[in-house]
Design brief:
The chain is an alpha+beta fold and 103 residues long. It has one domain. The chain is built from four helices and three strands. It has a three-stranded mixed beta sheet. The longest helix is centred in the middle third of the chain and has 15 residues. The protein is globular and about 35 Å long.
């Protein structure tokens, strides 16, 4: 299952995403949360903390600036550029996925 949360700024997308991700994680679902927002705060809402959220944003910026290598697969994205959040959620802050794998 894939769920996308979209809407206008200030509508509660980040809060809704965090509650949904952690709720599904608590029920045993494998949850990958992708923060694609231009103002990424999902890490804070998920509870990974300031320093880990900042680390993910720094990695994302390095990729965008061409100073880091893109991961070839989705699994590599999560391994290289992800962080574990509470309740079994895996978080990655990204701007795009190039050549996504189907499924």
């Amino acid at each position: 299952m894939k769920i996308v949360v979209v809407g206008k700024g200030g509508a509660g997308k980040t809060t809704t995403s965090a509650v949904l991700a952690r709720s599904l994680g608590r029920r045993g679902a494998r949850v990958v949360a992708l923060d694609c927002d231009t103002n990424p705060n999902l890490g804070l809402s998920l509870g990974v903390g300031d320093s880990e959220t900042e680390r993910l944003l720094t990695l994302r910026d390095l990729l965008d600036e061409g100073e880091a290598e893109h991961a070839p697969t989705f699994g590599d994205i999560l391994d290289r550029y992800g962080a574990d959040a509470p309740d079994g959620v895996r978080l990655a802050a990204i701007t795009r996925i190039e050549n996504p794998e189907p499924g």
